[in-house]
Amino acid sequence: MVSIRCLRLPLAAALLLLSAAVPALAERQILVNLKDRYLYVLDLDPAKFPAEIASSGVVLKAQPDAAKVLGKFPVAIGAPESPTPTGFYSILEKIKDPTYFSHSKNALLPPGPCNPVGNRWMSFKGSDDNAYGIHGTAWPEWVQRREAVSKGCIRMFNADAVKVFDLVKLGTPVRITVD
To answer: What is the pLDDT of residue 17?
Structure first.
């Protein structure tokens, strides 16, 4: 249950605050669970999140069938020294067949099977102001073992990255949790 406290606000102000404070009610959403190391693409039914006005403020209660899982995909996540950030974000950029700049080699790597970010890139900005990506990989064994190896990005099998890329659009909410 999501609870938003709006003490001492008139109903109109509380509802305005609610509409601005709950971007997660978009119809499509990405959820990444760092504990089980899976990425989920969800379709949410905003009509199944009825708001109730209580003495403590506005309360949203999701009905049991409020979300439909469109896909569940294994992922590799950030290494302990460079963890994947938790929180609420949104997809800022989508690139098909991206190029990659290698700082260690000081070189631009073209699209293809050796590209570290695979064949799809979807970026979001962390609360630390760094850019992170949900992307494919040239090392599928890391995803197979669901390892913690990246610099904070979320690596996927290339075929799965294509599926997610096709399911989401710019602005799609991304929620990253540890549970």
So the answer is: 40
Closest CA to 62 of 15, 141, 17, 1: 1
Q: Which residue type is seen at 21?
A: A
26-47+66-177, what's its fold?
L,D-transpeptidase catalytic domain-like (2.40.440)
DSSP-assigned beta bridge partners for residue 69:
42
Strand-strand pairing, 131-135 and 154-155 = parallel
β-pair type (100-102, 107-109): antiparallel
Of 23-37, 79-93, 101-115, 134-148, least confident by mean pLDDT is 23-37
* Residues 61 and 47 sit within 8 Å (Cβ to Cβ): no
Q: Whole-prediction pTM value?
A: 0.77
